[in-house]
């Protein structure tokens, strides 16, 4: 692991501990909200930078994997910054039906697509092409589910109760699928990749 990557991982761990201490010691209010929001944004930024740095020297399918992870966490960072506008700048609650919810759902698809490439294995060109096909099919599949179960209650026939219920169910299914895939990869990998999948599984469940 590169020294710069260790630094960013250390920053992410320190920020997580800072957020936990602030939540335990401070009362609910603008100060706690500010610390929590900025800590989470910086954690996400650290993850984006770490994955982007790993992508730079990589080649082929491995680079695609790291780029997918970086893009997924970058999408979460953008969603967090949007959230912070409501929390800290406008100081008003998020709307019940929030357009930024789609940004919260997208990263799971990117992460899952990256895991389908099985970056811990060396694959032939034919299997790499199959991985690309899997990625495209996965994107179409999840977009269909999101539009069919969630977006229709957001724009076509507005219904807050069905929108929130379907979004929560679909999001939990997505997290569960990612966790199951990570467990399978954890079982089939060795060494550094096994540790990586274990840490990633912990981050997803956290």
Shape: globular
Q: Give the termini distance in whole angstroms.
A: 23 Å
Mean pLDDT: 81
Helix- and strand-based class?
mainly alpha
Q: Quaternary arrangement of the chains shown?
A: single chain
The biggest beta sheet, please? none
- The helix content, as a percent range, equals over 70%
Discrete helix count: 7
- The H/E string reads HHHHHHH
Q: What's the gyration radius in Å?
A: 18 Å
DSSP, total strands: 0
Report the β-strand fraction as a percent range.
Answer: under 5%
Low-confidence runs: none
Characterise the protein shown here.
This protein has 206 residues and is mainly α. It is 80% helix and 0% strand. It has seven helices and no strands. The chain has helices at 3-25, 30-55, 60-89, 101-116, 125-149, 160-188, 191-205. Helix 2 packs antiparallel against helix 3 (60-89), helix 4 packs parallel to helix 6 (160-188) and helix 6 (160-188) packs antiparallel against helix 7 (191-205). The longest helix is centred in the middle third of the chain and has 30 residues, at 60-89. It is globular, with a radius of gyration of 18 Å.
């Amino acid at each position: 692991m590169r020294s710069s990557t260790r630094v960013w991982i250390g920053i992410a761990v320190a920020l997580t501990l800072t957020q936990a201490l602030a939540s335990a010691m401070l009362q609910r209010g603008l100060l706690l909200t500010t610390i929590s929001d900025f800590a989470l944004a910086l954690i996400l930024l650290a993850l984006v930078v770490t994955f982007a740095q790993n992508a730079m020297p990589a080649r082929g399918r491995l680079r695609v994997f790291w780029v997918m992870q970086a893009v997924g966490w970058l999408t979460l960072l953008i969603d967090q910054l949007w959230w912070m506008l409501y929390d800290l700048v406008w100081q008003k609650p998020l709307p019940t039906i929030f357009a930024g919810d789609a940004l919260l759902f997208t990263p799971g698809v990117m992460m899952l697509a990256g895991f389908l490439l099985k970056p811990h294995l060396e694959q032939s060109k034919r299997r790499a092409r199959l991985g690309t096909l899997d990625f495209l099919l996965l994107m179409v599949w999840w977009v269909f589910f999101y539009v069919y179960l969630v977006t229709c209650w957001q724009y076509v026939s507005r219904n807050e109760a069905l929108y929130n219920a379907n979004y929560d169910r679909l999001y939990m299914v997505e997290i569960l699928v990612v966790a199951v895939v990570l467990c399978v990869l954890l079982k089939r990998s060795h060494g550094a990749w096994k540790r990586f999948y274990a840490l990633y599984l912990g981050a997803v469940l956290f």
